[in-house]
Amino acid sequence: MATQSPQPMPIRCKAAVCRAAGEPLAVEEIVVDPPRAHEVRIKIVCTSLCHSDVTFWRMQDFPGVFPRIFGHEAFGVVESVGEQVEGFAAGDAVVPTFLGQCTECVDCGSERSNMCSKYRFAVRPGLPRGDGSRFRDSTGATLHHFLGVSSFSEYTVVDVTQVVRVDPAMPPPTASLLSCGATTGVGAAWKLAKVEPGSTVAVFGLGAVGLAVAEGARICGASKIIGVDLNPEKHELGKKFGVTHFINPQELGEKPVSQAIIEMTAGGADYCFECIGLASLMNDAFRSSREGWGKTIILGVEMHGAPLAIPSLEILHGKCVMGSLFGGVKPKQDIPILAEKYLNKELELDKFITHEVALKDINTAFELLLQGKSLRCTIWMDK
User: Fold this and answer.
1) Residue 234 included in any domain
2) Nearest to 351 by CA among 194, 214, 165, 191
3) 268 and 288 Cβ atoms separated by less than 8 Å
4) For residue 336, is it within any domain?
5) Which pLDDT tens digit goes with each residue over 278-336?
6) What is the pTM of this model?
7) DSSP 350-370
8) Name one GO molecular function term (predicted).
9) What is the dihedral angle through the alpha carbons of 304, 307, 313, 319, rounded to the nearest 10 degrees?
10) Are the C-beta atoms of residues 17 and 351 closer than 8 Å to each other?
11) What HEC string does 178-191 produce?
């Protein structure tokens, strides 16, 4: 007679908890409940800090809910699975993703969308199917989730729609990058814009996501990749990611950025990517795109809530604007492809990792990012 596997039990572990907006994170002992139906409990090996974590860490009003466990870019190993979970087992190498893919709804079944309509993306304090939190502090009080991932914890519980198996040959730090930043940028060029060989590209903002866009454009065979950034140090850095030309708007005098790009590309870039989150830059990107077929892809969330205003006449001349969430990538089908490209040395990810710290030093990762000194800082759980 077959023996049943023991039911998963609550786990005590350490997590970096944020108790108020903008306050340093405190490493505390917490309790992580077992996974329920359709859920997977993951032992996080390493995680990294993304600008989105910082944005919501600063946020005082809803959806800035506290106390909370941030983190959404990570690599881990499945520790246990809940009922009705198929395709995952203890020991699987996985990355969690903030964007789910149920594989059943009309959007998941279409190549035109990566936005699951059954479990819609939202910045909620819990998991996508509701049912409260899986985290408690030492007093039994609830700790809220972040983007359904909460990877600043040695163990976390994630809905099965937000877990992707990856080749165990992937080094943990680089696998972690596929969870968010690198995939978002590379995907925007590869999946969403579908940059063709020989085309011209302009990238506004050379942070981690912007550099990932450049890397994606390089892989797609773009002939000219123009990086636009106010930081002169990004000129040399950008070259490592495929940037062929660099513009610092402060060095142009009275000349608009759009005019400089139009001159460099003989009419405007085929693809322009805005990776900062400023309406004025979105407008610059749009004006820099070529009449007839120019595409402007918006990756940045407007940091002040300002609307985007663009000339309607230029729309009539064949330009278009596209929004991008997670670079148009369908997590369960496309992340394994990116992992394969990395292992085949087509996609370079290691150059994104500039620093590493232990969980106890997680606030150092915040300082490095806020000071503009790091692209991605790997946070190790066992060091």
Assistant:
1) yes
2) 214
3) yes
4) no
5) 999 999 999 999 999 999 999 988 888 899 998 888 899 999 999 999 999 999 999 99
6) 0.94
7) GGGEEEEEEGGGHHHHHHHHH
8) alcohol dehydrogenase (NAD+) activity
9) 70
10) no
11) CCCHHHHHHHHHHH
Is 210 domain-assigned? yes
Q: How many CB atoms lie within 10 A of CB 77?
A: 15
DSSP secondary structure letters along 140-158: S-EEB-STTT--SBSEEEE
Nearest to 220 by CA among 192, 245, 261: 192
What is d(CA 168, CA 63) in angstroms, rounded to the nearest whole number? 35
- CATH of residue 256's domain is 3.40.50.720
Helix intervals (H) in the chain: 51-58, 172-177, 181-187, 208-220, 234-239, 257-264, 279-288, 312-316, 331-343, 362-370
* Rg of the chain over all Cα atoms, to the nearest angstrom: 21
Q: CA separation (Å) from 20 to 58, 70, 143?
A: 9, 12, 12
Q: Which domain holds residue 218?
A: 182-328
Average pLDDT, the chain: 95
Burial class (CB in 10 A: 0-12, 13-18, 19+), 86: exposed
Torsion sign (Cα): 25, 183, 327, 158: negative
Counting the structural domains of the chain, the total is: 1
**27-33 mean pLDDT:** 98
Question: 90-105: buried (b, 16+ CB within 10 Å) or exposed (e) per residue?
Answer: eebbbbbbbbbbbeeb
Q: How many CB atoms lie within 10 A of CB 363?
A: 15
> Which structure tokens are listed for 362?
């997680």
Judge whether 295 lies within some domain: yes
Neighbours of 89 (CB within 10 A): 12
